[in-house]
UniProtKB/TrEMBL annotation:
All copies of domain Peptidase M14, residue ranges: 34-326
Obligatory cofactor(s): Zn(2+)
InterPro entries xref list: Peptidase_M14
Similarity field: Belongs to the peptidase M14 family.
Naturally occurring in which organism (per UniProt): Hymenobacter mellowenesis
Name of the molecule in the record: M14 family metallopeptidase
One matching Pfam family: Peptidase_M14
Organism taxonomic ancestry: Bacteria, Pseudomonadati, Bacteroidota, Cytophagia, Cytophagales
Length: 587
């Protein structure tokens, strides 16, 4: 603990002390165990905006479920708050978001301090010459207003903090695709407005005990376009780790593992698009989740977060040309890409090695149960090589269609697509065109609700070429250059981990609306089999190969129904069609 305290003091010593009028609530607490309330936080940014209008702009950026507005803070060298103008000036855009889990408030306090220092210290202000910062002071306003001292039972301070769930009891870090909360809808509009180069969302970890104050989740490089993956692995991450080491905050990848203790091997976090960094990656934005260690005191957690945010800013400034080139190449490659991965699995045949600073894991009798329990012995620190599994491989892929066709009835899906940068063109007249249609043959569904949904996975499809009729007002999404191609693939392809189908947006097609009375259909089924020898042959073949089916009369009758014209065509038929033609639909 002495090392951690020393690191905290050194970090403080490197930054000029603010005048009393500019101290944050965190800085005003001698114990360093206080986080700002929502009112204190917003009032602080209002004061900054009023004092430094040449460089800082504060605006409301849409509603939240709490009934309070989401706020957007823009920091720039010349006061420019226009994204298009910012791009023309060849500035990189760094988007920082705090308080998605308000019980993890380090980023809220650290950002207040960093923004103040950027405004008041000329050396830091120069970092805005090439980088514009867009900052959300508090994302989960709802949870921040729900202040308490008990819900973070594993965490060492602060004295009071907010709650993880928002006003609708949603975890907003699972809401980036389904966007049920007003918070997520406002965020999406802000994200699409700025289309940042780098996105940072601040967190506090859970799990094992170890020596680090700061751990880091980075966008999974396997999921990025090759140019971005190479830049992330070869330039950006090494620079962040080196700079944090120099600032006396050695970092490690986020501590996630399958064994008893971290020495069993660290596993990279696979952030699907329900999470912030997974969502950002769909748009070729590199994402980071700095995760401070819950068991460290609050003061070093805040100071390490401050230094991490400062380090990202410094590094983006220093590497601005390389970052710009990598994103431009990624956009060009995606425009030409024809096959996209939809699901992933850890590749345990590949690993890196990291020097991990941990504590020995031991067991002792539990005072509760008397059974052996795990504890980490802080009197036995170690540094040793640990395997780090940091590669994922795709398990499901899909080809890119020319366009998707979406019946106008699915207004909720259409609204989300528009909010996330997709252009939906309504048909002006009825068209009949050849399409690929999916039929949902099998899937698994969670036994309990997750974030208000029974989520589907392991989706099995039958793809069938059909000639389908679409009506005036039905929607076409062309997969052309400039469209959010990867976002569209991972939301509209049902097999994708966080597709709209996975989240239950199309569940109504899974329920059969019409059926038969067996005593009536018996005669119809017999007549069908007499008139269709091929159908009879298929039935007999099934019976011969499956004794249980052969002994089950109702099952056979159901099979005949399912394979007849009487079975409703919309049952298990995925309503979004794939069009593979050229030009424009219907022309």
């Amino acid at each position: 603990m002495f090392t951690l305290l020393l690191a905290s003091l050194m970090s403080l010593a490197s930054t000029p002390a603010p005048t009393p009028a500019w101290r944050t609530p965190f800085e005003n607490d001698p114990a360093g165990n206080t986080t700002a309330t929502y009112a204190e936080c917003i009032a602080y940014y209002q004061k900054l905006a009023a004092t430094y209008p040449a460089h800082l702009h504060l605006a409301e950026a849409g509603p939240t479920d709490a009934g309070r507005p989401l706020h957007e803070v823009v920091l720039s060298a010349d006061g420019d708050t226009d994204p298009a103008s910012t791009r023309r000036k060849n500035r990189r855009i760094l988007f920082i978001q705090n308080g998605i889990h308000p019980g993890e408030p380090e980023g809220i306090d650290a950002s207040m301090m960093l923004v103040r220092d950027l405004m008041q210290q000329k050396a830091l202000l120069k970092l805005l010459d090439q980088v514009t910062i867009v900052l959300v002071p508090v994302y989960n306003i709802d949870g921040m207003l729900n202040r308490n001292s008990t819900t973070r039972v594993n965490q060492n301070g602060p004295a009071e903090y907010g709650f993880r769930g928002n006003a609708r009891h949603l975890d907003l870090n699972r809401d980036y695709i389904k966007q049920e909360s007003r918070n997520a809808r406002s965020f999406a509009q802000l994200f699409q407005k700025w289309q940042p180069d780098v996105f940072v969302e601040t967190h506090t970890s859970n799990g094992a005990d170890y020596q680090y104050t700061m751990t880091l989740i980075a966008t999974q490089h396997s999921k990025l376009a090759p140019a971005l993956a190479t830049y992330l692995q070869v330039q950006l991450l090494p620079a962040l780790y080196k700079s944090m080491e120099q600032k006396k905050w050695p970092m490690t990848p986020y501590v996630d593992f399958e064994g008893r203790t971290p020495e069993s091997g660290l596993q990279a976090f696979l952030e699907s698009p329900r999470y912030s960094t997974g969502y950002a990656a769909l748009f070729n934005t590199i994402g980071f989740m700095p995760e401070t260690h819950m068991l460290k005191a609050y003061a070093p957690r805040v100071h390490s977060t401050y230094d991490f945010l400062k380090t990202v800013l410094e590094t983006v400034d220093a590497q601005a040309p390389a970052l710009a080139a990598a994103r431009a190449q990624a956009a060009a490659d995606m425009a030409a890409q024809t096959t996209f991965p939809l699901t992933w699995v850890l590749d345990d045949s590949q690993h890196e090695t990291v020097q991990f600073m941990g504590y020995e894991g031991r067991t002792k009798p539990s005072d509760v149960s008397g059974q052996p329990r795990l504890y980490y012995d802080r009197a036995a620190p170690f540094t040793r090589p640990v395997k780090y599994f940091n590669t994922f491989k795709a398990t499901t892929t899909a080809s890119r269609p020319t366009a998707y066709l979406i019946p106008k009835a699915w207004v909720e899906v259409a609204d989300i697509l528009r909010r996330n940068g997709a252009t939906l063109e309504p048909l002006t007249h009825e068209v009949t065109v050849p399409v690929e249609t999916y039929y949902l043959e099998d899937f698994k569904t969670t036994a309990k609700p997750f974030e208000g949904h029974y989520v589907h996975s392991q989706v099995s499809l039958r793809t069938q070429p059909e000639t389908a009729t679409f009506h005036a007002g039905d929607l076409v999404v062309y997969m052309k250059e400039g469209a959010p191609i990867r976002y569209l693939m991972e939301t509209l392809e049902p097999q994708a981990t966080d597709s709209f189908f996975a989240w239950g947006f199309f569940d109504s097609v899974l329920q059969q609306k019409e059926h038969f009375s067996d005593y009536v259909f018996e005669d119809l089924a017999a007549d069908l089999l007499r008139r269709d020898p091929a159908l009879r042959e298929r039935l007999e073949k099934l019976k011969a190969g499956n004794p249980a089916f052969a002994a089950n009369g109702p099952a056979q009758l159901e099979w005949v129904y399912q394979n007849s014209a009487y079975h409703e065509p919309g049952h298990n038929r995925y309503p979004v069609a794939r069009w593979l033609g050229t030009g424009r639909v219907g022309e």
